[in-house]
């Protein structure tokens, strides 16, 4: 797989050869993971999370620059982070497939730039992009291209400026999640569902390449709101009940359970719709796309009691919680400090850290 290095600054100074901490930034929190080389393989070093005040970032867009910079400064002070690979919000990215004439790999970037404005609503000078080769024959090459606005990266660079934390790479979330939970070298076809607090990221990975992404405005916070409203309790108490009881339990009445299931049904319908779209449309070479073999769940609320089984009902594809450590260590002789349930929240951060550890 030939991959561009556009998000990685060039030319690479010495510090780019050093391991970087994966830093996942969402609307509600930052999570980071450091991977370190040990005698028995890669192990987890520093890790943690830090809340982001409401309204600082909304749908991936920075609304309050100084407040975000202050969060970075606090993380620097507490955890002494230095070099980081940073996630970019999925809903601010564009992903498309492009079929190019057969050419040298070194010429692919220039060829993409020439047609970029035909694919996304911005000029080539306003865009930053990365790409993967997903197929080729004697006459053509197909690539999967991820694009973000240069201004988006500039905003995060500005927020990090003066904090003592240096970004060495930026990457769209779906690529990081895929690197974390799809076994390295597995060229099968899978769907990842990252069930976050405010939204859910859906991606299809085939042949080791992210080929489809979508964002659904449904998350664990929606379930919390249902509990808080119906039981007339605080948001914190509703969060506690949600994690203790799941989508059914002693305190979860039938009415609340049905309301939460209704929310999850929206997500399930979106998953089914994207699965059908993938299967019904041929690739650039007119070939039927391979069937999705499995759906992997990750995200902070993906481990709620009853969530996986209810989401899986009505779907023909097996659904299971992801092993976010699958590409870190075999776990035969290593027990990570992060529990399995907590690790589901760190899928993006682990994937970001793995890009510099492999």
Overview of the structural elements:
By secondary structure, the chain is α/β, with parallel strands linked by helices. It folds into 2 domains: 217 residues, Nucleotidyltransferase, domain 5 (2-Layer Sandwich), CATH 3.30.420; 138 residues, 2-Layer Sandwich (Nucleotidyltransferase, domain 5). It has 10 helices and 15 strands. The strands form 4 sheets. Strands 3-2-1-6-10 form a 5-stranded mixed sheet. The radius of gyration is 20 Å and the shape is globular. The N terminus is likely disordered.
Fold blueprint:
Layout: E1 21-25, E2 29-38, E3 41-51, E4 57-58, E5 61-62, H1 65-79, E6 83-88, E7 93-101, H2 108-119, E8 127-136, E9 140-149, H3 150-160, E10 166-172, H4 173-181, E11 189-195, E12 200-206, E13 209-216, H5 220-231, H6 235-245, H7 254-280, E14 294-298, H8 307-312, E15 319-321, H9 340-343, H10 347-357
Parallel strand pairs: 1-6, 6-10, 11-14, 14-15
Antiparallel strand pairs: 1-2, 2-3, 4-5, 7-9, 8-9, 11-12, 12-13
Approximate strand percentage:
25-35%
> In CATH, what is the class of the largest domain?
Alpha Beta
CATH superfamily of the largest domain: ATPase, nucleotide binding domain
Question: Can you count the beta strands?
Answer: 15
Individual helix count: 10
InterPro entries: ATPase_NBD, FtsA/MreB, PilM
Pfam family, one: PilM_2
Protein name: Type IV pilus assembly protein PilM
């Amino acid at each position: 797989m030939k991959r561009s290095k556009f998000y990685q600054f060039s030319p690479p100074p010495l510090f780019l050869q050093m391991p970087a901490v994966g830093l996942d930034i969402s609307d509600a929190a930052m999570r980071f993971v450091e991977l370190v080389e040990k005698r028995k393989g890669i192990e987890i070093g520093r890790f943690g999370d830090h809340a982001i005040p409401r309204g600082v970032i909304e749908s991936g867009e920075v609304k309050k620059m100084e407040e975000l910079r202050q969060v970075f400064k606090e993380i620097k002070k507490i955890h002494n982070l230095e070099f980081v690979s940073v996630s970019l919000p999925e809903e601010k990215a564009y992903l498309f497939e492009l079929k190019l004439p057969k050419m040298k790999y070194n010429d692919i970037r220039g060829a993409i730039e020439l047609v970029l404005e035909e694919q996304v609503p911005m000029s080539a000078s306003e865009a930053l992009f990365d790409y993967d080769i997903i197929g080729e024959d004697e006459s053509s090459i197909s690539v999967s291209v991820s694009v973000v606005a240069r201004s988006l990266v500039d905003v995060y660079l500005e927020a990090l400026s003066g904090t003592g934390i240096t970004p060495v790479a930026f990457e769209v979330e779906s690529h990081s999640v895929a690197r974390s939970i799809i076994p390295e070298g597995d060229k099968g076809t899978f769907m990842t569902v990252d069930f976050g607090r405010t939204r859910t990221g859906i991606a299809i990975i085939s042949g080791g390449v992210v080929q489809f992404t979508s964002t659904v405005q449904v998350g664990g916070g929606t379930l919390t709101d249902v509990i808080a409203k119906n039981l007339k309790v605080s948001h914190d108490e509703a969060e506690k009940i949600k994690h203790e009881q799941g989508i059914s339990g002693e305190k979860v009445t039938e009415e609340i359970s049905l309301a939460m299931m209704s929310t999850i049904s929206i997500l399930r319908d979106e998953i089914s719709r994207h699965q059908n779209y993938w299967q019904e449309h041929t690739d650039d070479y007119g070939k039927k796309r391979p069937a999705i073999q499995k759906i992997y769940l990750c995200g902070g609320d993906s481990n709620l009691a009853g969530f996986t089984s209810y989401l899986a009902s009505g779907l023909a594809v097996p659904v299971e919680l992801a092993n976010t450590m699958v590409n870190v260590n075999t776990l035969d002789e290593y027990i990570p400090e992060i529990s399995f349930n907590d690790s589901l929240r760190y899928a993006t951060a682990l994937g970001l850290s793995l890009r510099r550890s492999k």
